[in-house]
What does this fold into?
Amino acid sequence: MAIILTSALKKSFGRIEAVAGVDLSIQKGEIFGLLGPNGAGKTTTIGMLCTIIRPSSGSAFLAGYDVVREPSRVRRQVGIVFQDPTLDTVLTGRENLELHARLYSVSSRVRKERIEQMLELVDLRHRADDITRTYSGGMRRRLELARGLLHRPAVLFLDEPTLGLDPQTRARLWEYIKKTAHAEQTTIVLTTHYMEEAEQVCDRVGIIDHGRIIALDTPEKLKETMGGEMVVVRAAKQPLEKIRNLPYVSEVRENDGTLEIITKEAHRHLPKILSLMKDVHCVEMRVPTLNDVFIKLTGRDIRDDTVEDAGSWVDSIARYRQRGS
Ligand SMILES: Nc1ncnc2c1ncn2[C@@H]1O[C@H](COP(=O)(O)OP(=O)(O)OP(=O)(O)O)[C@@H](O)[C@H]1O
Ligand SMILES: [Mg+2]
It folds into this structure.
């Protein structure tokens, strides 16, 4: 059963078409990822689904309720972790949850127990009575996750839940998210810039660019569309026609002294490919990633657009240094 169903969903802000006609069908219990660069329309799409943003046209249903005509019913079915932190930092962790439970009319009978359960789920019981200003970024994110789940929503929206966190904290947060999806039978719709994580966590992924879904499938199927494995070669500039003409090579891309060759059965064909090249500095062979899929579809690296993403800055600096060395 589709718990989220949209048809030609659109949102314009003046001349900007933030979401340009999105059709989605997300199943109950699914972990669904929306991937795309800055400004692609991810937050706007989520905003419409949880009734914060009014669509310009098209339709969207959540748990059978119309987001425009029945917003209060929809709201009762959803939990949200916003892209920007929204905890009240002068309250303690427990007080933040208490406040949310009251706002969502979680009955006083089950409230206390639910709060304890959620604190347990995200490993925050030992800090529950400290004000959240004293929490680390990862702890605040975990508390927001607990808060989003407190009223047992059918759908949990997570907008960049791990942005700016260190890799270890990100990995742990995903563990909580997966654990929750299973334990609570919650459908999860998330956005993230971390492609590798989307691959590991999501059942299906929708790649969104300029307000449109340009590909949608399981991570495995999306990667299969690349038509082979990746051979990445650092080498001096050279003619590539012969490599392009090899029957098993589906694509050759050149970027700054790095060649990316997509070929079937890379392990078998690598010697032949290398024999057609000169001055090779180094070679790497790997299966394609969702980032490769994104580059193939859009011609851009998702990370190049992600300015506020501390993690990718570190990556960029590392890549820059590598190039210089
Ligand atoms: N309230 C608003 N008023 C005007 N334009 C807006 C508004 N909200 C979003 N936009 C524009 O709509 C487009 C989509 O924005 P959105 O926030 O949905 O992108 P996003 O995919 O979530 O990006 P990011 O990865 O940076 O969070 C952008 O061009 C943005 O500038
Ligand atoms: Mg956003």
